[in-house]
Amino acid sequence: MRFSTSVLLSIFVALTSALPIIEARDETNATLPTVKIYGTGGTIASKGSTAATTAGYQVGLTVDDLIDAVPSLSDVANLEYLQISNIGSNSLNYTHLIPLHHNISQDFENGLIDGAVVTHGTDTLEETAFFLDMTIKSEKPICMVGAMRPSTATSADGPMNLYQAVSIAGSSKSEGRGTMITMNDRIASAMYTTKMNANSVDTFKADEQGYLGHFFNDNIEFYYPPARAYGYQYFDISNVTDASEIPEVIILYSYQGLNPELAVQAVKELGAKGLVLAGSGAGSWTNSGEITNEELIDKYDLPIVYSRRTPDGSVPTDDVPSYGIASGYLNPQKARILLQLCLYSGYSIDQIREVFATSYGG
Ligand SMILES: *[C@@H]1O[C@H](CO)[C@@H](O)[C@H](O)[C@H]1NC(C)=O
Ligand SMILES: *[C@@H]1O[C@H](CO)[C@@H](O)[C@H](O)[C@H]1NC(C)=O
Ligand SMILES: *[C@@H]1O[C@H](CO)[C@@H](O)[C@H](O)[C@H]1NC(C)=O
Ligand SMILES: *[C@@H]1O[C@H](CO)[C@@H](O)[C@H](O)[C@H]1NC(C)=O
């Protein structure tokens, strides 16, 4: 009696069903890469009430629905999927990011997948991208993808973005480039890309550092060989089991007449273990705020990172008081994650200053 491969496979699956089986959609095509899609929610998984609705819509599709909406996906990769959450990215936090990290990390280590795609709301997509970039040690590509228009809108951008992300995550050309943000035909590095427009489809920009490549007519075209940005470094968080193990860091925003007590309250009452300042210009804080900052650092041995409220550019060491830490090119939301990872790793203020300094030229 002869069994076909698929019969043997189902017997194997039945025998091993006590083990966690990765969900796969179709029969495996050995010539194609295997890409796993991790669904977190967001506009890409949303439905509006009419075809013109592009605001005020609800998250409602699962990663399974998304795959069904793009049948050509099965031509570019063997697909697996896992739903991590199904919420807007404004409500994501380490409670979701830690399991997301551990799943991708273990799937890479087990050698079962060639690339990862994370479907995500666009609001905080750059934060998850930066976090995964700094904490997953692998040459395999991770593509973050979202949409600005819900699935029900005319010219919804989600299906094409998802198709491109799966293609890029499955390509050997994408190896060694870390976590990427792949939307709107552009391939960009998690390190510097940021959401620039609250509404427009073309919102992710890396104006100063530039893009890594372009998706054009089903071709993946990179401009440079694989490389990691200055400032990239790996933090091992494989032992983290609970979100509360990641130290609290609070971001304060600069404005005329800033109340310096905000910094005191963040530390004393909210228990911040570090602060990131979205300062004006190249990271300036107010004169009275500086007196408070220096006192806080003296009293609590607290790292304070000076970043900027300006959308682009660098906060250099020269512009920051000697007790502070300059964020370089990192915006406040990315500087916060880097500072949290440094604090989790037990780095001193001087070590943290060195970590940030590598982001402006090694
Ligand atoms: C496997 O994928 C390749 C590349 O897309 C395609 O040419 C081939 O027909 C597929 N094989 C099967 C059995 O579907
Ligand atoms: C993170 O999200 C979870 C689940 O949505 C929520 O219970 C928790 O309070 C949130 N944590 C923080 C720090 O916001
Ligand atoms: C993987 O994700 C699932 C779904 O969120 C979660 O239940 C599981 O604990 C995660 N695995 C790890 C190792 O964190
Ligand atoms: C993780 O925990 C194990 C066991 O306690 C320990 O040997 C290892 O050094 C820890 N790794 C990190 C990066 O903290």
Question: Care to give the gist of this entry?
Answer:
This protein is of the alpha/beta class and 362 residues long. It is built from ten helices and 16 strands. Its EC number is 3.5.1.1.
Explain how this protein is built.
Residues 1-18 form the signal peptide. The protein is α/β, with parallel strands linked by helices. The chain folds into 2 domains: 5-222, 3-Layer(aba) Sandwich (Rossmann fold), CATH 3.40.50; 247-360, Rossmann fold (3-Layer(aba) Sandwich). Helix content is 29%, strand content 18%. The chain contains 10 helices and 16 strands. Helix 8 (287-300) links the parallel strand 14 (274-279) and strand 15 (304-308). Helix 5 (125-135) runs parallel beside helix 9, helix 7 runs parallel beside helix 8 (287-300) and helix 9 (332-344) packs across helix 10. The longest helix is centred in the first third of the chain and has 16 residues, at 94-109. Residues 91, 93, 95 line the site of one 2-acetamido-2-deoxy-beta-D-glucopyranose (NAG).
Oligomer: single chain
Q: Please state roughly what percent of the residues sit in beta strands, choosing from under 5%, 5-15%, 15-25%, 25-35%, 35-45% or over 45%.
A: 15-25%
- Overall number of strands: 16
End-to-end distance, in Å?
65 Å
User: What is the number of independent domains?
Assistant: 2
- Radius of gyration, whole Å: 22 Å
CATH topology of the largest domain: Rossmann fold
Strand order of the largest sheet: 4-1-5-6-7-8-11-12
Give the overall pLDDT as a whole number. Answer: 91
> So, CATH architecture of the largest domain?
3-Layer(aba) Sandwich
| Global geometry | globular
Low-confidence stretches: 1-22
Please give the share of residues in helix.
25-40%
The CATH superfamily of the largest domain is known as L-asparaginase, N-terminal domain
Query: What is the C-level CATH assignment of the largest domain?
Result: Alpha Beta
Family: Belongs to the asparaginase 1 family.
EC number: 3.5.1.1
Catalytic activity: L-asparagine + H2O = L-aspartate + NH4(+)
GO molecular function, one term: asparaginase activity
